[in-house]
Amino acid sequence: MLIKSGSGLMMSLPIWIFWIQLDRYQAEFTAMRDQYMRAGEGFIICYSITDRRSFHEVREFKQLIYRVRRTDDTPVVLVGNKSDLKQLRQVTKEEGSALAREFSCPFFETSAAYRYFIDDVFHALVREIRRKEKEAVLAMEKKSKPKNSVWKRLKSPFRKKKDSVT
Which ranges are annotated Basic residues under compositional bias (predicted)? Predict the structure, then answer.
C-alpha cells in the first residue's frame, strides 16, 4: 500500500492481514503468523462494531502480539469497523475508546464499505511507528552519553586549578 506522509513523501507500507478466529488456527499457520508478527513494525487491530465476540477477541490478539514480540511497546491502532451499520451496533464507541486508552493507542471507528477514516487509520499507524522509533533513538542517545563517574567526582577536589595564583 502506498501512503502519503504528512511531509508529502510517498511511503510503501507492507500489509499482512490476519483474519483469525483465535480458538481455531492450525500449527503451520501459527508459525507463519508469528514470523510476520515479529517482523511487523506496527499493528492495526480491528473488530466489528456489530459483533461483540470480535471485540472480546481484541484483548486476546493484543496479548498474542505481546507474547510473540515480547514487548508491550509495539505500535498499535485499534479500529472498530462497520460504522455504517449503526442499527446493528453491539459495541459502543465508548467501549472502543476505553479499550484504546487501556492499550495507550489511537482509536477509530471506520467503514470499509464507504472508506470512512481508512486513510486516517494508516496515517495514525505510521505516526505511532515513527514516535516509537524516535523514543528508541532518544533512549539510545541517553544511554550513550558519558556519565560523571564516582571516581571523577572523588578526584575533582584534588585537581589543580588552572587559574590559581601561586
Answer: 144-166
> Is the whole-model pTM more than 0.90?
no
147, part of any domain: yes
Beta carbons of 22 and 60 less than 8 angstroms apart? yes
Cα–Cα nearest to 60, from 106, 24, 112:
24
Question: Residue 33 in contact with residue 20, Cβ under 8 Å?
Answer: yes
Q: Give the chain's domain count.
A: 1
The verdict on residue 54 lying in a domain is yes
Could you tell me which residues are beta bridge partners of residue 4?
Answer: 10
The set of long-range contacts for 35-39, using a CB threshold of 8 Å and a minimum separation of 24, is 37/64, 37/65, 37/68, 37/69, 38/68, 38/69
CA distance 9 to 43: 21
The set of residues, in sequence order, having a beta carbon less than 8 Å from that of 57 and lying 6+ positions away, is 21, 22, 47
Summarised one tens digit per residue, pLDDT across range 23-35 is 455 555 677 777 7
